[in-house]
Amino acid sequence: MPNLQTAQLGDIPLIWVEPAGVERRPLAIWLHAFSWTKEDVVPQLAELAARGFLALSWDMPRHGERRDESPDEMKQRVRGNLRRHFWPILAAATEEVSAVIDWATGNFDVQPDVGIGGVSMGGDIAVAAAGNDHRIGRVAAALATPDWLRPGSAEPQGEAGEAQQALYRRFDPLTNAEQYRHRPAMLFICG
């Protein structure tokens, strides 16, 4: 079991693993999938730390310690209308990334070029965050998409209200390609 550490950043419960014997290290953020928790990505955090990264994650909005309904209730609600209920989670988590990077750079001696990745929802957030925060130089997104409209998806997408459309216009990576002028390296792993 890795030496897990925790802290609270406002209402954001953080978890991280520090690499052994490395002073100034790169920061790697790894984000969990929909309905998972930060504890579900501990194996990935341990692997990143073993490779010399300060490996960090947290519970995304409405997940883990931040949930306000059971995981089954959340799955049913969100899958009933992805655009109305999933887009706000993606947007809120995307906005949190910058605050978490600020916290990490203020509390640890980390290199300025940040890597971020995740699985499914975590990958979607990682891609959006790279457009929102130019300190992110590398993205690894597994089973994720830069297109929040998810064309060709077998899941019904639902309808967005005005507030959700505003979030889409602000954060959807495909709609905001100009926000990636800093050219972060991106790896998509899809099957």
How many strand segments?
7
Task: Give the uncertain stretches in residue-range form.
Answer: none
**What is the chain-wise order of helices and strands?**
EEEHEHHEHEHE
Radius of gyration: 16 Å
Structural class: alpha/beta
What shape does the CA trace take?
Answer: globular
What topology emerges from the helices and strands here?
Elements: E1 4-9, E2 12-17, E3 27-31, H1 42-50, E4 54-58, H2 71-80, H3 82-107, E5 114-119, H4 121-132, E6 136-142, H5 162-171, E7 185-189
Parallel strand pairs: 3-4, 3-5, 5-6, 6-7
Antiparallel strand pairs: 1-2, 2-4
Helix pairs in contact: 2-3, 3-4, 3-5
Keywords, separated by commas or semicolons:
single chain; 191 residues; alpha/beta; 7-stranded mixed beta sheet; 35% helix; globular
Describe the structure.
With 191 residues, the protein is α/β, with parallel strands linked by helices. The protein is globular and about 50 Å long. The chain is built from 5 helices and 7 strands; from the N terminus they run βββαβααβαβαβ. The mean pLDDT is 96. Helices cover 35% and strands 21% of the residues.
Provide a short characterization of the protein structure.
With 191 residues, the chain is of the alpha/beta class. The chain has helices spanning 42-50, 71-80, 82-107, 121-132, 162-171; strands at residues 4-9, 12-17, 27-31, 54-58, 114-119, 136-142, 185-189.
